[in-house]
Amino acid sequence: METIVTKRVHIGNVIRNALVFNFRNSLGGAVMTDNLLQTVARLFALLDERQTEYLLVGGIALLQYIEGRNTQDIDLIMAVSSLEKLPEMQISEQNADFARGQFNELQIDLLLTRNKLFDKVRREYATTRPFIEQAIPCATVEGLLLLKMYALPSLYRQGSFARVGIYENDIATLVQLYQPALAPLFTELAQHLSATDLKAVRDIVAEIEQRIARFQQKSS
């Protein structure tokens, strides 16, 4: 079942609104957002001009499939070598799988293709979606589910209850709306997670499917 959100997303507005209405920002002073729309447009224009391979993931990508998702940054899958094509981005943190960059006032979280799953998602779970800024390479529903499920065991170990709740809700909403085939996704995850973590993810998704079934019974 295909119910893709048809309204084109304005990435700059999404991020600006999230920053302006964030409660913590209202306590910490005014958020400088005047140039944010131009900064977002310039980022994606530069990525195209320099023929940089990347894939949009995270909250902005989810807005192609789920309405009302809120996010203050941009998440991209990229190779480390691709970062060299964008010296304007200042990298503040980096490890084997992740990096955080700053492009003017815009925060960018990077999933690095040295991680085999991230690379697989970039290559095989990608589509192109129209945004207000331009057409952008974007993860598919299945690609987003793979990334969300892959992250869950680590989030549980970190005790990140708020993020666990967000990720599980994203998974539940995607599964309920799009009814993707989950077996191939578990097969893929088996190559990247330990047996213990894979079982934990399977159990979580089974609970989500049970919640969806109860919801559908009560709403029918």
Characterise this structure.
The chain is of the alpha+beta class and 220 residues long. The protein folds into two domains: 11-139, 2-Layer Sandwich (Beta Polymerase, domain 2); 144-219, no CATH class. Helix content is 53%, strand content 17%. The chain has helices at residues 11-21, 23-28, 36-49, 58-62, 80-83, 116-124, 141-158, 161-178, 183-189, 195-219, and strands spanning 54-57, 74-78, 90-94, 98-103, 106-112, 126-130, 135-139. The longest helix has 25 residues, at 195-219. 29% of the residues are buried.
- Biggest beta sheet summary: 5 strands, mixed
User: What's the order of the H and E elements?
Assistant: HHHEHEHEEEHEEHHHH
Q: How many domain units?
A: 2
What is the distance, rounded to the nearest whole angstrom, between the alpha carbons of the first and last residues?
A: 17 Å
**Helical percentage:** 40-55%
**CATH domain fold name of the largest domain:** Beta Polymerase, domain 2
Overall radius of gyration: 18 Å
Q: Could you tell me the strand content as a percent range? A: 15-25%
CATH class of the largest domain, please?
Answer: Alpha Beta
Q: Mean of residue pLDDT?
A: 90
Poorly predicted residue ranges: 26-31
